[in-house]
Amino acid sequence: MPGSKFKIEKQCEVCGKIFFAKTVYSKYCCKNCSDAAYRQNKRDKKIEQQRAELISQIPAERPYITVGEAVALFGISRDTIYRLIRNGNIPSINMGERLTRICRTNLEVMFGSAKPVPSKLIQTKTSVLKSEPFEKENCYTIGEISKKFGISDSTVRKTIRKMSIPTRQIGKYVYAPKSEINKVFNAK
Question: What CA–CA distance (Å, rounded) separates 176 from 145?
């Protein structure tokens, strides 16, 4: 691939360092970063394969599933599931240490039917829900939250990530449920 006549300043996708790209398609500043990205891509594929195997082993007729199986099936984070259990939004059965079981039908009502989701969505703390709480009347945008509670946008985003509040991007706006936001920010 031919090199560019211009000096193209880019940011490395791995280390974040600014570098001058040799080509228009360059993503990494050095071979070490390129190798690290390759290894991460291989790890992601392996995790996705393990997730697909776990999903195939879960019987469809079993009414109660583990937290790990719920993470794999519905693409929501482990923290979100435990938070919903603590708040009483999802009924659960605790049969001992590390033996928490959740009713599959309750999760399907709340999060929609179980569909395979990319593993990158599972690894993020904010989950993407496709259920009723994300109607525009029931949600705030990041800007509305910062104006209403008098805090900066970055603080709002950090708090949403920290508290595992589900969000959804519609167009150029990120929406969060009013009920969850009011619980968090009214308590402070």
Answer: 9
